[in-house]
Specification:
Chains A, B: GO terms for molecular function: oxidoreductase activity. Chains A, B: InterPro entries: DenD (IPR050005), Epimerase_deHydtase (IPR001509), NAD(P)-bd_dom_sf (IPR036291). Chains A, B: Keywords: Carbohydrate metabolism, NADP. Chains A, B: This is SDR family oxidoreductase. Two copies of one chain form a homodimer. The first copy, chain A, is α/β, with parallel strands linked by helices. Chain A has a domain of about 200 residues: 3-Layer(aba) Sandwich (Rossmann fold). Helices cover about 40% and strands about 20% of the residues of chain A. A seven-stranded parallel β-sheet of chain A has the order 5-4-1-6-7-8-12, with helices on both faces. In chain A, α1 crosses α7 and α2 packs parallel to α4. Chains A and B meet through α5 of A and α5 of B.
């Protein structure tokens, strides 16, 4: 089985590639070829089968046709411009997040019409397809009414994925990932960055800034669980989905206060004392429009499983990123 | 004020053009120029101000740029490939219903960036953005999960309209029209055709075929009320809408049995006796996936008004199409 990961150089893409290289299978079927693609060459993990790393431009029709011409059995599409950049650069966001995905689906349709090709297509969508006002929790039948161009682009791709799948052109599934926490690496300027940094920095003895109130609630999954979701989506027997192919993933709802309590339980008061409260009205305003939590009934009934607890989300980071050490 | 109607040669487009020519105003502001555009030259009604009829191709970027270059203050966009054709011809449906609308929005964005141009843009969406399973009535916050390519294209355009409006590039409003009844003219092959023909043909002494059970329920507006909706949308003070710019219109929910009872009340037993029951499983299957009714709270609170009753829907046809005579 040939598996292709698009956007393989990103954080989730790298972890997914490592997982696929290590397990060598999806749904009990052996992977015999792995193609990792991104705008910059992704790292190729060690594996018992050929791993090819390639660069490609999702906005270049010829590149996209060439990628699909490799006829992967499973395509996991993570490539995207992130939310902040899609908001700042209207044209780039639409070109990559909407038109790039449409080029992929159109290239698949062309191969389908030639020989019946119909790959599994796992699309990384986002909870940004939802916009305030919304209930907490947000149910599976709640309107997708995004408040950003990024969320709009993801919501449109969900609609396309449903229609192409309904017509039998592709075997699509879209999963709306919770906010990934703890995101490894350096602090970044994303408005959501503090959800990770207030944990990540104290775990290595550094100060972190908290720009919002302790009562702010949000929806989380660890990177390990996000990879679980993608692999489970690649393995799912999609006849269970019916025409609605896109699912909100289960997650852990936690307030900032609950995040900090979990940090105290796992890493002690020394860690929590490193969080410095510096209210930032701009960030607080942005975050106020974000979903707090979901009732992910459909995904749960299809076997998608959230992290066990927020404490576990922190322990996963300590295990996977810090060699088990706090300090 | 310069008003432009795109898709002006269609049934609703013609009635809307006549209305605008007759009243000469929208929201108390005088119309001083009316441009009627379609793929074939629309009829130009008599008016007290210049009415220009033009042909254009919604799929031709140069044509679209030229249309928007006329800088209408209000654009009413009715141009579309109908549901059946969009399902039969994948490429044409996406080219016209999605890419054509996007060309319009992009041409507006280009003018906006040049000089701040920001027209009112009234988009005719459809209840086809909803797909089974759904509750009856369908509320304003229910997921748009279309089961046709036409519904997908309309749902995508709604998302684009919201995003372009949120960014201040256009002053958009989308309205989801109920099924128009009684549609004037000859019987057509649309699966929904019988909802009109079982009334229209008996009103002129001709037989009509009913392919579904009397219990089938659906959601209706008269052509006159559909025009009211479009004019009201063109006049609306859109700051009331917030970021969700697309609305399900109010309508009359009626079962086929209730349609026939109304026909009996308005036109007598002679009319109802002309309906011949010929069950057609294919049509029954298609119609089973269609919405039955809506709770159009937002639209009602914004002043959109449904027909008074199904009897009235029949009377409007008799007045507007049959010179008041039943035969």
């Amino acid at each position: 089985m040939h598996v292709m990961v698009l956007g393989a150089a990103g954080m989730i893409g790298r972890k997914l590639s490592q997982r696929l290289a290590a397990t060598g299978e999806i749904d009990g079927k052996n992977i015999d070829r792995l193609t990792l693609a991104d705008t910059v060459a992704p790292e190729g993990p060690e594996a018992a089968f050929p791993v090819e790393t390639v660069t490609f431009d999702l906005c270049d029709p010829a590149d996209v046709v060439a990628m699909i011409g490799r006829k992967p059995d499973i395509i996991i599409h993570l490539a995207a411009i992130v939310s902040g950049e899609a908001e700042a650069d209207f044209e780039k966001g639409y070109a990559v997040n909407l038109d790039g995905t449409r080029l992929l689906l159109e290239a698949i349709r062309a191969e389908h019409e030639r020989d019946g090709y119909r790959p599994r297509f796992v699309f990384a969508s986002s909870i940004a397809v939802f916009g305030a006002p919304f209930p907490t929790p947000i149910g599976d039948e709640f309107v997708r009414a995004p408040l950003t161009s990024y969320g709009t682009q993801k919501a449109i791709c969900e609609l396309l994925l449903n229609d192409y799948s309904r017509r039998g052109l592709v075997d699509g599934i879209g999963i709306r990932l919770p906010t990934i926490c703890i995101r490894p690496g350096l602090p970044n300027k994303a408005a959501s960055g503090f959800f990770s940094s207030i944990l990540r920095e104290p775990l290595v003895g550094q100060e972190a800034v908290l720009p919002v109130a302790d009562t702010v609630r949000h929806w989380f999954a660890s990177p390990r669980t996000a990879v679980d979701f993608l692999v489970h989506a690649a393995a799912l027997h999609t006849e269970q989905l019916g025409p609605r192919r896109c699912l909100s993933m289960p997650g852990i709802m936690a307030s900032v206060g609950e995040q900090i309590e979990a940090l105290g339980r796992v890493a002690g008061d020394k860690a929590t004392s490193l969080i410095r409260r510096e209210p930032d009205e701009t960030i607080a305003g942005i975050v106020a429009g974000w979903p707090e939590g979901f009732e992910a009934k459909r995904a749960e009934s299809l076997g998608f499983r959230a992290d066990a607890s927020f404490d576990d989300i922190i322990r996963i980071h300590i295990t996977d990123e810090l060699d088990g050490k706090v300090g």
